[in-house]
Design goal:
Number of helices: 4
Order of helices and strands: HHHH
Structural class: mainly alpha
């Protein structure tokens, strides 16, 4: 993340459309994300954040925790867990032997061949 905030950005509130303003340090309810926690985690990850970035990330993390809590409320034992909104099905077809080229037909259009295989130039400087 950046180390300096240009003056034009420092006047804007450090929240995004999907976040809400960050809680002040120490007044959050249990499970709430505080600026102090974000700052501590950034330090553990060796990420230097500006105060504006800490405020913005705190608000975004609070929104994420709130959304997870909403999902947890509706995820009851009678609602099966799903990874996809519609059931998946196998779309592979059966293997069927069809009309294929003979070896001579396949090699007939090749720029180079040795009679039974395509001949290609060496790659990555490897000689054979």
């Amino acid at each position: 993340m950046s180390t300096e905030t240009p003056p034009s950005e420092s006047a804007r509130p450090a929240t995004s459309a999907n976040s809400r303003p960050a809680k002040a340090d120490g007044d959050g309810a249990p499970g709430e994300i505080t600026s102090a926690q974000v700052e501590h985690l950034a330090g553990l990850a060796r990420i230097k954040l500006t105060p504006e970035e800490i405020t913005k990330l705190t608000g975004e993390l609070v929104a994420i925790v709130d959304n997870v809590a909403k999902v947890t409320e509706v995820a009851t034992p009678d609602v099966p867990a799903t990874s996809h909104p519609i059931p998946l099905q196998n779309v592979f077809r059966d293997d069927v032997v069809g009309v294929t080229l003979t070896q001579e037909q396949a090699l007939s259009g090749a720029p180079e061949h040795d009679g039974s295989r395509f001949r290609v130039s060496a790659i990555l400087g490897e000689e054979q």
